[in-house]
Amino acid sequence: MASTHGAEVLVASNRGPVSYEVREDGSLHAKRGGGGLVSGLSAIGPEAGAVWVCAALGAGDREAVRRAGGGPLPDEDTGGQRVRMLGIDPEVFAGAYNGIANSVLWFVHHMLYQTPLEPVFDAEFRRQWEAYRAYNHAFAEALAEEAAEGAAVLIQDYHLALAPRMLRQLRPDLRIGHFSHTPWAPLDYFRLLPDDIAAELLTGILGADRAAFLTRRWADAFTDCCHAILGPGIPSGTRIGVHGLGADADFLRERARRPDVSERMATLREEIGEGRRTIVRVDRTELSKNIVRGLLAYRRLLTDHPEWRERVVHLAFAYPSRQDLAVYRDYTAEVRRVAQEINGEFGTPGWTPVVLHVKDDFARSLAAYRLADVALVNPIRDGMNLVAKEVPVVTDGGCALVLSREAGAYEELGEDAVVVNPYDIGGTARALHEALGMPADERAERSKRLAAAGTALPPARWFLDQLDALG
Q1: Which of 51, 346, 419, 448 is the most buried (most CB within 10 A)?
Q2: How many angstroms separate the Cα of 166 from the Cα of each of 52, 84, 135, 141, 154?
Q3: Which of 167, 165, 189 is nearest to 238 (CA)?
């Protein structure tokens, strides 16, 4: 079943390196993405003949797949990267992606359920689980078709937890790795899942030669679940690894000096006002990011320490995420409401306490990084959190980091951060006060150490390390 194309390296992920939109004249417009996987694949060079297998995510993507006849996308759209995009039935995709991946697995691993009412694993859940199986099987079949004998396959994330086992059954010759970009739930929480589903998820990943995680904590949680649910040991022989994805310092520093970032900085300085300190956060309005409690902690800071009123501005960039799910729309609305409430309570004609932006703008995010005196990163739970690693790299004057102990980044950055319990509003307010009052020289020294730790394994090296570890 090996491909005549004979790809020696393959990557599989839900989202690929390119997306499409259909324009009014019927033409397709391709937009190339970035990120760690794109950097990693480019680092191995064209001679590897790598293939990226991904899903068509919208109407434009599906039209591109149709025009390509189900084969590889045009090289001019993908920057020369060979990409096979899968036109999975929209109903199957919705059940797998929204029904299971984002509404069950994400909630389990980030411990987001309100357990008196949810989860409810009923007949509809079982229907969606069949869609998740079908989605994973489509990936396994495509990988099996594209891979050369003995090829290395790196399967990414919770969307594709079943694919390693399925691919192993189709192509036992392949070297298969699975990487989890999320936390892994502790055993007691993982056992919210029906017993057969929990076992199927674990054995799915254990179809890989190697299962890797962002931190040792998440790796240990996975092995705890395997031992308790499947029995002592890992009989498949799957090796467990840890690769703590870092920030891309060279890219960030170069990108942060471009003219569009300078323009955004000038605009932000006007919004902030002369001589004021800045507390910066940049997040998607993802439930796990804990934006509302961060705003409540800022309000508590202004209440408990009135000396900071009119002397500090909270730049809160909260970019809407997963707005096709009602719970995410409600959360985004709550972020807006609390920010407006704080501005109404404390604002003066010359001072807006919270400057909230909800439209995604990477250049503006980098501008905020450069202006940050304090970075607030307080997730309920996070696989890593690259913002915590990026801000110290880009900051102009040194930045104090207020960091949740539940972020994966805590494992590497905790020593030089001001660490908080993400549920503790008062404790987070005290941490913000401490960070704002930190002497400039201490802030600068901590920033240097945070930047060094946060860039120790940049995206290309992170990817190559996984590839090397497969042998």
Answers
A1: 51
A2: 18, 19, 11, 8, 14
A3: 165
Task: Supply angle C-alpha 294, 300, 304, rounded to 5.
Answer: 150
How many CB atoms sit inside 10 A of residue 157's CB?
18
Retrieve residue 268's tokens: 């932000």
3-state secondary structure of 276: coil
Angstrom distance (rounded) from CA 48 to CA 11: 12
Give the orientation angle of helix 36-44 with respect to helix 459-469, to 10 degrees: 60
Per-residue pLDDT reduced to its tens digit, 177-235: 999 999 999 999 999 999 999 999 999 999 999 999 999 999 999 999 999 999 988 87
Amino acid at 234: I
The CA dihedral of 195, 197, 198, 200, to the nearest 10 degrees, is 120
Cβ neighbors of 261 (< 8 A, separation 6 or more) are 255, 363, 366, 367, 370
- Is the pTM here over 0.90, yes or no? yes
| Angle at 403 (CA atoms; ends 400, 405), nearest 5 degrees | 150
Residue keyed to tokens 């591109």: 64
Residue 455 to residues 44, 177, 182, 412, 413, Cα–Cα distance (Å): 20, 23, 19, 10, 11
What letter would DSSP give residue 317?
E
* Distance of alpha carbon 37 from alpha carbon 54, whole angstroms: 12
SS3 content of the chain, % helix, strand, coil (to 5): 50, 20, 30
User: Is residue 119 reached through a cis peptide bond, with omega within 30 degrees of 0 on the bond before it?
Assistant: yes
Q: Pick the more confident residue, 346 or 37.
A: 346
The Cα 181–Cα 156 span in angstroms is: 8
- Count helices and strands (H / E) in the chain: 20, 15
Burial letters 380-393, b for 16+ CB under 10 A, else e: bbbbbbbbbbbbbb
Question: Closest by alpha carbon to 133, among 171, 160, 151?
Answer: 160
Radius of gyration (Cα) for the chain, nearest Å?
23
Strands 239-242 and 277-284: unpaired
Other Cβ atoms less than 10 A from the Cβ of 402: the count is 24
Q: How far apart are CA 112 and CA 316, in angstroms?
A: 22
Nearest to 115 by CA among 193, 23, 210: 193
The pLDDT value given to residue 68 = 86
Count CA atoms within 13 Å of residue 146 on its CB side.
Answer: 29
**Beta carbons within 10 angstroms of residue 122's beta carbon:** 8
